[in-house]
Amino acid sequence: MDVVTNAVPRGTAAPDESVGMSYLDRLPRRVVVVYLPLAVFTFVLLFPFYWMTVTALKPNHEMTDFNNYSPFWPSSPTLQHIYYLLFETSYPGWLWNTMLVALGSTILSLAASVFAAYAIERVRFAGSRWTGLAIFLAYLVPPSILFIPLAVMTFKFGIYDSKLALIFTYPTFLIPFCTWLLMGYFRSIPYELEECALVDGASRWQILTKIMLPLSVPGLISAGIFAFTLSWNEFIYALTFIQSSENKTVPVGVLTELVRGDVYEWGALMAGALLGSLPVVLLYSFFVDYYVASMTGAVKE
Amino acid sequence: MADAAVQDRVLLPPEPKASLLQSRGMVGFLFMLPALAFLLIFLTYPLGLGVWLGFTDTRIGRDGVWIGLENYQLLWDDSLFWLSVFNTLLYTITASILKFALGLWLALILNEHLPFKSFFRAVLLLPWVVPTVLSAIAFWWIYDSQFSVISWGMIELGIIDMPINFLGDMENARASVIAANVWRGIPFVAITLLAGLQTISPSLHEAATLDGATGWQRFRYITLPMLSPLIAVVMTFSVLFTFTDFQLIYVLTRGGPLNATHLMATLSFQRAIPGGQLGEGAAIAVAMIPFLLAAILFSYFGLQRRKWQQGGAD
Predict the structure, then answer these.
(1) Is there a single domain that holds both residue A126 and residue A192?
(2) Would you call A18 an interface residue with chain B, using a CB distance cutoff of 8 Å?
(3) Do the domain assignments include residue A177?
């Protein structure tokens, strides 16, 4: 490596290798090839959020009257939809339910996954490779083919129409995902650390809690955030297993309770969609890198 | 892996007084127990139960009896079922191709040296982060038959003179749900492929340019082959989740108009939960499994090829 860089005459080497050869492109070409498509992509991908926000803030008479009021800006912004949502519907309860369910299933899945990932990756018992493969396959089983038998089961267990039904069924897709992610993370921790501890007489439990877990905090955060987002966004189980309004989660509640007959309360619907997205978006904005790491990690491993 | 096993044997000589708790298998089993118990009860068992339900006439509130292949015979003669299979394949194939093409394009753009790159990367992932149902509600409003902002914009520009009936017309409805699905899927494809693009060394491109390769040749003979293992995996995930999609359709059209957008997942839900025919719904869900298996096998061979390419044994 050094030899190669030394061979390049001084002053001509690109200061930053990530720049690659883009300095060869002329500006007009870059505008057409890079900036213009990027602007279009950004506009299309973000427009629905903008439209959601604007609609949530418009009073009802402005919402459908594009000729007398600018459609792209609320001329007299109002909080009436948000007020209606928070004080005249069960929305706060749905938020609370979603939070409880997401936290409960995330904690449950993380705990089970840490042990499983450690066992597969480091204890290396007979058949651990096949278990790893089985975990990966379990991740590929979609909720759309499980919801009918699970509905039958939750009914038989007597937890139908309760938050427990969701807390127990969400780990079906969270545990495989978290285990897979943590396996990749544990693999990156040097084996030598563990060997030293084994030589010093530490038990497996001590190695896991005193060495592996403190070192894998970033991996745990990635898995936790992703699991929380997945359970916050889950829809088909929540739609199938929950009947009563007070147990619904935000996605189900907004869709089934805010749409009454033919009168769509667009303002309230948009406000509900916006507020329901806010927690995951906030979480995401604080931990973007962890989130991207878990998303790409799950695919790359 | 073989090395690790040898090392372990050196480090952990089998002690004569080794108790059961120190044996590898036992420790492994105990650590696996919580996850294993969960997955067996809530994943493996329901999978089997689902297959069994497909052979029964179970309804909501009534245990069914074994009726053999009757559900499948009914489905075989059910034109709505075949329409849903067609719709699902159309939806999956069209949406996946568009997601792949646009996602790869976006990934290539984001791989350029850009100002505020990490900001763009973070913001463009938003459609994937936000709950699908909630963004689908936004699309529902955008696709409104009277007050759609797209129709309004196009009328203002003089392209059309009547609002487009996005979700009321068969062809339009299909195109609209595919567009919404693509909108949500592009960021996932783009960001994961971007992670792969960043591992390709720029020196390869520099060497190719010195040899006189054009931009297209560099893309075709360097970028694409280096990326293809990752593409295989990403697209398998994408195909799998598009094929079993439920939320978007349920919000936007519930299968209508004239069942033009009914997917197998939504048909299964409609027959099983509002319709009460759990057995028939389960049979439709089971009919999805062969397609999913094909996708998973594809993924498996994609992964194998990648390991082989890297020269790794494990």
Answers:
(1) yes
(2) yes
(3) yes
> How many angstroms separate the CA atoms of A275 and A272, rounded?
5
| Domain match, A131 and A27 both | no
Residues A44-69 pLDDT 10s: 999 999 999 998 998 888 877 777 77
Q: Which residues of B touch A191 (CB under 8 A)?
A: 4, 7
Question: pLDDT value at position A2?
Answer: 34
| Residues A118 and A52 reside in one and the same domain | no
Q: Which domains does chain B have, with CATH numbers?
A: 84-285 (1.10.3720.10)
Any B CB within 8 A of A224 CB: no
Do B53 and A21 make contact, defined as CB atoms within 8 angstroms?
no
Q: Alpha-carbon dihedral of residues A276, A94, B263, B129, nearest 10 degrees?
A: 30
Given this model, what pLDDT does residue B80 score? 93
Q: Which residue has the higher pLDDT, A247 or A4?
A: A247
Q: What is the ipTM of this complex?
A: 0.85
Same-domain check for residues A187 and A41: no
For residue A278, give both structure tokens. 């806010």
Residue A259 belongs to a domain: yes
User: Which residue in chain A has the smallest CA separation from B264?
Assistant: A144
Final residue of a domain: which of A58, A78, A98?
A78
Separate counts of helices (H) and strands (E) for chain B: 16, 0
Does A59 reside within a domain?
A: yes
pLDDT at B88 > cutoff 50: yes
**Alpha-carbon gap: A34 to the closest alpha carbon of chain B (Å):** 6
Domain of A121, CATH number, reads: 1.10.3720.10
Q: How many CB pairs under 8 A join A and B?
A: 294
Contact assignment for B206 to A240 by CB distance below 8 Å: no
**Which of A53, A78, A103 finishes a domain?**
A78
Q: Which of B130, B196, B209 sits opposite A21 (nearest CB)?
A: B209
Determine the pLDDT at residue A98.
94
How many domains does chain A fold into? 2
Q: What is the pLDDT of residues B25-51, one digit of tens each?
A: 888 888 889 999 999 999 999 999 999
Q: pLDDT digits over B194-213, tens only?
A: 988 988 888 888 899 899 88
Domain that holds residue A110: 85-300
Kindly tell me if the per-residue pLDDT of B119 is higher than 80: yes
> Can you tell me the distance from the alpha carbon of A119 to that of B99, in angstroms, rounded to the nearest whole number?
37
Kindly report the nearest CA distance between residue B39 and chain A, in angstroms. 6
pLDDT computed for residue B28 by the predictor: 84
Please answer whether residues A148 and B285 qualify as being in contact, where contact means their C-beta atoms are separated by less than 8 angstroms. Answer: yes
Shortest Cα distance from B247 to chain A (angstroms)? 7
Q: Same structural domain for residues A67 and A163? A: no
Same domain, A170 and A196: yes
Same domain, A251 and A113: yes
Chain A stretch 116-135, residues whose beta carbon is closer than 8 A to a beta carbon of chain B: 116, 118-120, 123-126, 128-129, 131, 135
Which of A 134-173 lie inside 8 A of B, CB atoms? 135, 137-138, 140-153, 168-169, 171-172
Q: Which residues of B touch A73 (CB under 8 A)?
A: none
**Does A246 reach chain B within 8 Å, measured CB to CB?**
no
Q: Is A201 found in the same domain as A66?
A: no
**B78 SS3 class:** coil
Residue B2: predicted pLDDT:
46
Residue B229 CA to residue B304 CA, distance in Å, equals: 9
- Please report the pLDDT score of residue B122 as a whole number: 87
| In the predicted structure, residue B313 carries a pLDDT above the cut 60 | no
User: Which residues in chain A have their CB less than 8 angstroms from residue B196's CB?
Assistant: 300
